[in-house]
């Protein structure tokens, strides 16, 4: 690939442009707001001039609702040999394109894609060439997609150091509904219950609810766009969750019954919810996309001085132990906390001994 | 306090006993399984012999269903001057005690308490004197509770370096339903949807669903006990969540409508869910139980070598920057990842410059 056109110079478009430009591709930048394209150009993502002729790849990085019209416009003026979009939903854009009456050759030159990357900030100033590094980048080619276009898309993904994953467009939309859109709404529904809760209750919050509600802090505007583009699969999944929830409420009410058989039935119902939750949780991929390795934790007490974490990590490094994950549990009302270091089981005694020797208080 | 009796030498009982023993209190240990009490004694938590006379404080640390009968037994034989239990639910034990026909003097000598501490392991071998450090420990005295007993309980909490919080028993049960039991079940319901999901979908999981489902990995047996002791408040909250969920499904279905007014109504409904989620999430206490400070993140690229984190933390410490929280985002299919360092906003330029100078790749 020697030339590219990036239409939509927000976070994703500008990040892809930066990656392409850093590999020597001549990138043209366009945005409905010329100021945004100028900003992206100033960051080194390319030029905001129009390409002289047909570029190799056009990357359409506009909000989901505008993808099909933007693609169709670019196709009609023959802007590129291949076209991709990067919207978070894939069934709709393809159907919209078909509805716009594009011919088979135009449709063959298009692949819907979705880089599974993001960050809390948006706009070109938040862009970075390494945004996609190591993250899945889904490709949804059709049966008639040109191989040449598939290879252009794969080249872009390689330049971005992302991991290509090929999926059917509708399967992709169901998958992101499952692993992202549904959990996002559920997290918000749990957090919503705290809005008017009493302060005395809220101060009992621990790490569990903190984790469950973390993504409820995300920017609502972006999420309305995402959810509006994928309402069907998300509604289907939420309905399934709602049915399970009703079942769970029934089981809890049965636990309050005077009838022992009903109570036993209720306990069985709750047990089944927890069993299924356990089973599902083990499927969440751990590090490196592999099946979850089971790590064990070493818990260290710290106070809140700068450098405490630094010293723990330095001491762990000196012992040759690789820390796989870290969790800091903050104490309530005190200048102290616990650091949970996740390591492979065989490292536990090594790390414990090494940290003890250096004077750390290790929780048994 | 000079003498104590701990009945039930699991994780919580043995941890409290270790804290008491370390402050010079003579602790007697009892368990329905004498082997457990012997183990706790061998760990230095006290003696498994019976006390010669009345002790100062009896700590009943048995499963919720056995609390009232165990307390009543100890009270009838005049085992202690004051009695507490440490079960995770507080309304039931008090009502059960009243139903057992204990007199006013006996009831005045009892306080239901709940240390908000726990860990994934159970049993005396998992116990540690610092289990409660910095965590809230709820006290639910009644109007007629002896002040002397309240002071004994406060002394125990001080020895455990926990933070005492006084609440009404039923308010406590509603609060833990809100901040712990309801989120626990919801996390399991989200995770349950992954049990039979296709592998291609599951591999798209990111940090969001990983956080939402983390607590679904907890031990089901313990959670059945907890939920069985608090079914009413949990069912009430889950019903509220279910009503919101139905509303959300309706809003998503409206987004699929051909009617533009309906679609606008649907978007408004989703917007409201996200707004409420945002508002509730900001109430989750951050570090030190304070109102959440807003931290900013500095993102560093690392590869998977031992010592990488150590060097980052050492470099941050050298720059005098206190890392408030850490999140490690693992890359899919690659030996690389991102480390997100949370710091107070004014530390961002200092930390960024310091890490850059030491050769780290910082995401802009």
Protein model, in words:
The first copy, chain A, has 14 helices and 11 strands. In chain A, helix 3 (67-76) links the parallel strand 3 and strand 4 (80-85). In chain A, helix 3 (67-76) crosses helix 4 and helix 11 packs antiparallel against helix 12 (260-281). Chain A folds into 3 domains: 3-167, NAD(P)-binding Rossmann-like Domain (Rossmann fold, 3-Layer(aba) Sandwich); 175-281, 6-phosphogluconate dehydrogenase C-terminal fold (Orthogonal Bundle), CATH 1.10.3660; 296-363, ACT domain (Alpha-Beta Plaits, 2-Layer Sandwich), CATH 3.30.70. Chain A is globular, with a radius of gyration of 25 Å. The first copy, chain A, starts with a strand and ends with a strand. Chain A has helices at residues 11-22, 34-42, 67-76, 91-99, 104-108, 147-159, 169-192, 199-202, 207-213, 220-228, 231-255, 260-281, 308-318, 348-357; strands at residues 3-7, 26-30, 55-60, 80-85, 110-115, 136-140, 163-166, 296-303, 325-330, 336-343, 361-363. In chain A, the strands form 2 sheets. In chain A, strands 2-1-3-4-5-6-7 form a 7-stranded mixed beta sheet, with helices on both faces. The longest helix of chain A has 25 residues, at 231-255. Chain A has 364 residues and is of the alpha/beta class. At the A-B interface, helix 7, helix 8, helix 9, helix 10 and helix 11 of A face helix 7, helix 8, helix 9, helix 10 and helix 11 of B.
